[in-house]
Structures are given as C-alpha cells and as structure tokens.
Amino acid sequence: MSAPAFATIGWRGREVRIECQWIAPERGDAPLVVFLHEGLGSVAMWKDFPARLCEAAGVRGLVFSRPGYGRSTPRAEDEIWDVDFMHRQAHEVLPALFSALGLGHEKPWLFGHSDGGSISLLYASRFPDKVAGLVVLAPHIFVEDVTVANIENARTAYLGTDLPQKLGRYHDSADSAFWGWNRIWLHPPFRDWNIEKELDAIRCPVLAVQGIDDEYGTLAQIRGIAARVSGCELLEIPECGHSPHRDQPDRVIVAATSFITKNRRETS
Predict the structure, then answer these.
(1) Spatial distance between the Cα atoms of 151 and 202, rounded to a whole number of angstroms
(2) Using one digit for the tens of pLDDT, what is the confidence trace for 9-40?
C-alpha cells in the first residue's frame, strides 16, 4: 500500500482533510474498490485486509477515514451528528471525496463494513449509475435492540476501561471518533432510523455478508436487503461476529473475489 495521503473537501461549512491510502494504483485498467470503515474504524484499523483482497481480486483499492476518524479532521467540539448522519456521508462526503481525487469518471465497487456498509447502500441508492457493485459486511438497514444494547455497553467500556487509549492508536482524537458514533446511535430519535425503502433504487450487484454470531445485529439485516434488491447474494458465516473480515478473512476474500470477478465478466 502507498503511504497515507490527504484530500481536502468542503463539508459542513469548513475545509475537512480526508486521510486516504491507495492500493496498487499501478493497476490503471483494473476496477477500483473503495473501502468504507465501521463506526469506530479508520484506515489503520483495516490493517492488511484491503491489500489482501485487492491482490486476490486483481483490483485497485482506496481506503479512507471519514471526517472525525483516523487522521482525518476531527469533529468540531460543537459538531453533533443527527439522525441523517449516514445519509450525509453517502450523499455529500463521498461525492466530494471522489471529486477531489479526480474519480468522477470511475464506477467503483464499494466495500463497506457496518456503518460503512449502510453508507455504501445509501450511495448506491442515490447514485445507481455511479457504482459497479457493493460488498457489505454487517450493514444496518434499521435499528435493533441488540445493536443499541451493545452500543450502550461500549459507552460503559469507554468511560471505565482503557478503550480510549486503545482507540487513540488509530485516531487523532479518540473522543471525536467514539462520541460522534456513540451519541447518535443512543439518541432516542435514532431508534426510528430505517433505510429499507431506499434499497429499492439499487440496481448494481450486491453481496451482503454477516456473521451468525454478530453481536451488533441479526440476520434480519442482510435478509432485508435481499428482500428489496433483485439478485442480492447472501453469505451467512458461522463462528463469526460483527467483523467478518477479521473473524473469517480468508472466507470473505474468497467470496468477495469470486463475486467481483463474476460480475466483471457478466458486464464486460
């Protein structure tokens, strides 16, 4: 992978720098896979998984940290995310980042985990002609009690353990990353958040993956995607929690590589 670099976008009335890392940019004619991290993720927290997937699939990769995460600009002290925070990432941040990086001509694949999976779905819904396909791991399409319960547990851990120090290895501001995510998910109006109807607009191939032992959601999430998106393929992995790319990386790489390769062949 290349050394981390930064792009600058205008968002929420100020300039925001976005931490980016390219994988195999020399594969100029290969498809581009854009990796969208989870609610507490960053470029560094993916570790070597994106590089391994890109090597197996023969594709280029772009890994980035969303505003407030990793080495990207932290949230302003008075910046409170609202119920539409994932919509704004999909409808505002992603298009601005692609424009800043000169990717307006590309139709990338989006590979999203958890909140990043939801953002990927929302982008493909809003811009159905600008995405080649999706691989989404443990995405959320509505709010479940089990999700909220474990996010409450995460808050307790952040306040009472060394979790801030652990997150500090991956974020310029652990507080920015943690509280931006935690407060909105525990905000009572967010319990009504639901993007099921928006899935009807998705036209690209979708592979939806979830661990059977996912502690942050049930299989109703990916099965709900399959009920709305024609041709969506599901992969339900036993002995696997909320992070399939960490718990079962080889299985995810094989499945994603096969899915991308098959759909490249069918559309070429």
Answers:
(1) 29
(2) 999 889 999 999 999 999 989 999 999 999 99
Q: Model confidence over 182-223: pLDDT tens digits?
A: 999 999 999 999 999 999 999 999 999 999 999 999 999 999
CA–CA distances in Å: residue 70 to residues 95, 160, 168, 178: 20, 22, 9, 11
Q: What is the pTM of this model?
A: 0.96
End-to-end CA distance of the chain: 28
User: What angle (nearest 5°) sits at the alpha carbon of residue 251, between those of residues 55 and 235?
Assistant: 120
Residue found under tokens 């290349």: 2
CA distances to 68, 122, 204 from 200, rounded to whole Å, are: 30, 11, 11
Domains for the chain: give ranges and CATH numbers: 5-267 (3.40.50.1820)
Q: Where are the alpha helices (DSSP H) in 60-199?
A: 85-88, 94-100, 115-126, 145-160, 163-167, 174-185
- Residue 130: CB partners within 8 Å, gap ≥ 6? 107, 123
